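Re-run with default settings, no changes from the original entry. Doing this only to confirm the output is reproducible before filing.
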Amino acid sequence: MVSNDPRDLLHGNDIRPFTVGVEEEFVLVDPATGLPSLTNTAVVADATNVALQLELSQCQVETCTPVCSNIPELGRELRQARLSVARAAARSGSRPLAVGVPIFGPPPGSMTDTPRYQLMAERFGPLAEQVICGCHVHVCIPDRDLAVQVSNHLRPWLPTLLALTANSPITDGADTGYASRRHVLWARWPSAGPPPHLRSAADYDAAVAKLVEDGHILDTAMVYWDVRLSSHQPTVEIRISDVPATVEETALLACLVRALVITSVAAVNSGRLPAPIDPAHLRAACRCAARDGLSGPQFHTAAGQSRPPPWSIAHLLSYIRPTLEHSGDYEFTRSALARVLGKGNGAVRQREAMRIGGPFGVLEMLSRLTTEGCTASEDRQPA
């Protein structure tokens, strides 16, 4: 039997080099009406104690944590970032929501006025005006050839990660029928979706160059695959997820992704090949995960099988348990997963709030969850 223990398969290396960072995107809204607030320039200019960036729409901002060596440190940085964004937004008369798509859409022509975003609007039209908020987890892998092999091993787990973090069922004040409406909108980009199975960094670069040559993207920053090699950092970046509603769910996602990456490196080092996945099956499984999230009676895996959603979560936890135990993150991960399965992910909770209080019930709930636990005095591992 081949070992799955990272201590056996990382050839004597520890897991400390696998640093992690997270980018979270937020919608800015008017606190009273829930309508998008086109104030991102003011919020970014006024923000302190947080790395904050403009996004495509004037009602969006993105936070970037520093590079973190462990999950408790990352949790502290996530809390600080959300708290800082909330304070800056309040000074501009708005409020950030951790939600995959806005409850109410912005008016046409609300793209951020930067040369790059305006070029995207000119080149890609209405496609560039969509407002979608994701969560991007970076894990350090300086070797690009190794990062490509890791991407191959991550592909089968993408539907599970999407189902777990789905947080965008409501838009235009109504249920869309999808737990992750964001994924459906995002998939319209020709450079989005699961990455292809690639052999090497040279193979990766050739695939990206073809996208540029054919006019599908402007440059490497527009490679929107669910797993990609960062164009400016020595990391593999996992982008499948909606922005989670709470800091704990984001920390959980980062913990799962980091453990999957480390386990994948161990698999590559042992010579283990990734599971063969038909691209059509993988895309279909992601589409089903976007539709059902954790609420469907069956979860469709990338291998074309159907399983109950808790089975898929348990399977993921079992697969990465040796890595989580080695890093000291197993108990946090196990208990946080249990809470998500018990309370529901963002999509489940939005639909319950919608049933009870309509769109404004969703607004109130998301407003509370976005900064839940983000008090300045807290300095503990997410729990």
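Residues 346-370 form the longest helix (25 residues). Residues 377-383 have pLDDT under 50 and may be disordered.
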